[in-house]
Protein backbone atom coordinates (compact mmCIF):
# COMPACT_ATOMS: atom_id res chain seq x y z
CA UNK A 1 0.00 0.00 0.00
CA UNK A 2 1.22 3.50 -0.76
CA UNK A 3 1.69 6.23 1.81
CA UNK A 4 -1.50 8.20 2.54
CA UNK A 5 -2.07 11.44 0.66
CA UNK A 6 -2.86 14.70 2.47
CA UNK A 7 -6.36 14.67 0.91
CA UNK A 8 -9.40 12.44 0.93
CA UNK A 9 -10.62 12.25 -2.66
CA UNK A 10 -14.16 11.96 -4.00
CA UNK A 11 -14.88 11.60 -7.72
CA UNK A 12 -17.91 13.26 -9.30
CA UNK A 13 -18.83 12.57 -12.92
CA UNK A 14 -19.71 15.82 -14.65
CA UNK A 15 -20.80 16.70 -18.16
CA UNK A 16 -18.94 20.04 -18.28
CA UNK A 17 -15.62 20.18 -16.39
CA UNK A 18 -15.03 23.96 -16.74
CA UNK A 19 -18.57 24.69 -15.52
CA UNK A 20 -18.05 22.37 -12.53
CA UNK A 21 -14.71 24.02 -11.68
CA UNK A 22 -16.33 27.45 -11.88
CA UNK A 23 -19.21 26.33 -9.64
CA UNK A 24 -17.04 24.86 -6.89
CA UNK A 25 -14.41 27.63 -6.92
CA UNK A 26 -16.88 30.53 -7.22
CA UNK A 27 -19.59 29.39 -4.83
CA UNK A 28 -18.20 26.83 -2.38
CA UNK A 29 -14.70 27.96 -1.43
CA UNK A 30 -12.70 25.37 -3.39
CA UNK A 31 -9.47 26.22 -5.18
CA UNK A 32 -8.17 24.69 -8.36
CA UNK A 33 -5.64 21.94 -7.72
CA UNK A 34 -5.21 20.40 -11.18
CA UNK A 35 -6.70 21.31 -14.53
CA UNK A 36 -6.77 18.97 -17.53
CA UNK A 37 -10.06 20.31 -18.90
CA UNK A 38 -12.14 19.38 -20.68
CA UNK A 39 -11.47 15.82 -19.49
CA UNK A 40 -10.65 16.31 -15.82
CA UNK A 41 -9.95 18.76 -13.00
CA UNK A 42 -9.38 18.54 -9.26
CA UNK A 43 -10.55 21.19 -6.83
CA UNK A 44 -9.43 21.41 -3.21
CA UNK A 45 -11.10 22.51 0.01
CA UNK A 46 -9.33 21.69 3.26
CA UNK A 47 -8.52 17.96 3.24
CA UNK A 48 -11.02 17.23 0.42
CA UNK A 49 -9.88 16.78 -3.16
CA UNK A 50 -12.92 16.67 -5.43
CA UNK A 51 -12.10 14.94 -8.70
CA UNK A 52 -14.30 16.32 -11.50
CA UNK A 53 -14.30 13.77 -14.30
CA UNK A 54 -15.73 14.54 -17.73
CA UNK A 55 -16.73 11.92 -20.31
CA UNK A 56 -13.20 11.69 -21.73
CA UNK A 57 -11.56 10.99 -18.36
CA UNK A 58 -10.40 7.52 -17.38
CA UNK A 59 -12.54 7.72 -14.22
CA UNK A 60 -15.70 8.23 -16.26
CA UNK A 61 -14.79 5.60 -18.84
CA UNK A 62 -14.28 3.01 -16.09
CA UNK A 63 -17.77 3.58 -14.70
CA UNK A 64 -20.46 1.00 -15.59
CA UNK A 65 -23.16 2.42 -17.88
CA UNK A 66 -25.96 1.83 -15.36
CA UNK A 67 -24.43 4.24 -12.82
CA UNK A 68 -23.16 7.08 -15.01
CA UNK A 69 -25.67 9.74 -13.88
CA UNK A 70 -25.28 11.98 -10.86
CA UNK A 71 -25.08 9.86 -7.75
CA UNK A 72 -27.23 9.56 -4.69
CA UNK A 73 -24.21 10.21 -2.49
CA UNK A 74 -23.17 13.72 -1.70
CA UNK A 75 -20.27 15.76 -0.44
CA UNK A 76 -20.98 17.22 3.01
CA UNK A 77 -19.55 20.69 3.64
CA UNK A 78 -19.77 22.02 7.19
CA UNK A 79 -20.54 25.74 7.48
CA UNK A 80 -20.61 28.13 10.43
CA UNK A 81 -23.75 30.05 9.43
CA UNK A 82 -26.10 28.06 7.22
CA UNK A 83 -28.64 30.88 6.86
CA UNK A 84 -25.97 33.27 5.59
CA UNK A 85 -24.61 30.67 3.14
CA UNK A 86 -28.09 29.92 1.79
CA UNK A 87 -28.80 33.63 1.32
CA UNK A 88 -25.45 34.18 -0.43
CA UNK A 89 -25.90 31.22 -2.77
CA UNK A 90 -29.55 32.04 -3.57
CA UNK A 91 -28.48 35.59 -4.47
CA UNK A 92 -25.90 34.04 -6.83
CA UNK A 93 -28.60 31.93 -8.51
CA UNK A 94 -27.38 28.56 -7.24
CA UNK A 95 -30.17 25.94 -7.52
CA UNK A 96 -31.22 24.21 -4.31
CA UNK A 97 -32.65 20.68 -4.34
CA UNK A 98 -34.24 20.74 -0.88
CA UNK A 99 -35.51 23.07 1.77
CA UNK A 100 -33.68 23.55 5.06
CA UNK A 101 -34.04 20.44 7.22
CA UNK A 102 -33.41 20.38 10.97
CA UNK A 103 -32.60 17.31 13.02
CA UNK A 104 -30.90 16.30 16.26
CA UNK A 105 -27.44 16.68 14.72
CA UNK A 106 -27.96 20.03 13.07
CA UNK A 107 -29.41 21.69 9.98
CA UNK A 108 -28.80 20.97 6.32
CA UNK A 109 -29.81 21.87 2.78
CA UNK A 110 -28.98 20.27 -0.56
CA UNK A 111 -27.85 22.04 -3.71
CA UNK A 112 -26.75 20.68 -7.06
CA UNK A 113 -23.64 21.29 -9.11
CA UNK A 114 -24.07 21.96 -12.86
CA UNK A 115 -24.14 18.19 -13.58
CA UNK A 116 -26.77 17.50 -10.91
CA UNK A 117 -24.42 16.03 -8.26
CA UNK A 118 -25.63 16.83 -4.77
CA UNK A 119 -23.74 18.93 -2.23
CA UNK A 120 -24.94 19.14 1.36
CA UNK A 121 -24.32 22.27 3.39
CA UNK A 122 -24.45 21.33 7.07
CA UNK A 123 -24.41 23.37 10.26
CA UNK A 124 -23.93 21.20 13.38
CA UNK A 125 -26.34 21.64 16.27
CA UNK A 126 -25.12 24.13 18.84
CA UNK A 127 -22.95 26.12 16.45
TrEMBL record:
CDD domains: VOC. InterPro entries: Glyas_Bleomycin-R_OHBP_Dase, Glyas_Fos-R_dOase_dom, MMCE/EMCE_epimerase, VOC_core. Residues 6-124 form the VOC domain. Keywords: Metal-binding. Transmembrane segments: none annotated. Pfam families: Glyoxalase. It comes from the Bacteria. This is Glyoxalase.
Amino acid sequence: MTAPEPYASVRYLVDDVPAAVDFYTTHLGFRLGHDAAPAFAAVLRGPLRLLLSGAASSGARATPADVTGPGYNRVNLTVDDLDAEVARLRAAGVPFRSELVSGPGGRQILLADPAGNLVELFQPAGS
